Amino acid sequence: MQGEFDRQICNLLDKGYPQSAGLGKRAFLNRVEPLRERLPAGAPRKKGRVPFVIVVKSEKLRAGDALDLEALKGEGNVNVIEPSELPEFKPIDGVALPAGPAYLLLDIDLGHDSLNFTPDDALKAILRRKRWPLTVDEGLAVLAHYPDILKSHNAFSMLASRRGDKRVPALWISKRRPKLGWCWAGNPHTWLGSASCGGRVGA
Predict the structure, then answer these.
(1) Is residue 63 a contact partner of residue 84, using CB atoms and an 8 Å limit?
(2) Are 201 and 98 in contact (CB under 8 A)?
(3) How far is the C-alpha of 119 from the C-alpha of 103, rounded, in Å?
(4) How far apart, in whole angstroms, are the C-alpha atoms of residue 194 and residue 110?
């Protein structure tokens, strides 16, 4: 787990997260390094699951930078959710995010078992299993640390971020590039699951 934590730290540095958050490298590391003490015990990675990812909260990044850093924008790719809309998607009731600028998302399941479920039904199933849906920030964090995840696994919805309407944000591949879009809460898709996590811990 320590080696994977180091890899993710280097990944954030390489992608320019400190600069986008308006921090120097040392200041950024001082805020993220305490999460090392909260790493889960050495659970092996399971198919379709990720043991943990480091999540940097979007308010620590300038508007739109989280998308730019994950290369979700570019020639030939159109995002259905624009960066200016992202602040309107808030955590749903019952989802509490740890304090601080960054935290660990634990035991991430990309939702293969919920393929062809409506997002509404998937949310009920996730909560029955005493798990939690993911926010947009968390979905982007999974993609940041595992950029090939959408090629090797199903696309996934992020049910914990909503804006008071029927739209549910999701990540999938379009024109061979990751795409941040949305689907209707009542519509099922054979290629779209709903991601969940076992918990969240801060420093």
Answers:
(1) yes
(2) yes
(3) 25
(4) 6
Task: Give burial (CB, 10 Å; 0-12/13-18/19+) of 46.
Answer: exposed
Q: Specify whether the CB–CB gap between 37 and 77 falls below 8 A.
A: no
What digits encode the pLDDT tens for the residues 35-67?
999 998 865 566 668 999 999 887 655 434 555
Helix, strand or coil for residue 7? Answer: helix
Residue type at position 160: A
Identity of the residue numbered 31: R
* Helix/strand/coil percent split, the chain, to 5: 35, 25, 40
Alpha-carbon distance 133 to 119, whole Å?
10
- pLDDT confidence band for 78 (50 / 70 / 90): very low
Q: Which two tokens stand for residue 78?
A: 């159109």
104-142: pLDDT as tens digits:
999 999 999 999 999 999 999 999 999 999 999 899 899
Determine how many CB atoms are found less than 10 A away from the CB of residue 75: 6
CB-based contact 77:85 (threshold 8 Å): no
Cα(145)–Cα(8) distance, integer angstroms: 6
Q: What is the pLDDT of residue 100?
A: 85
Q: What are the residues whose beta carbons fall under 8 Å from the beta carbon of 71, sequence distance 6 or more?
A: 177, 178
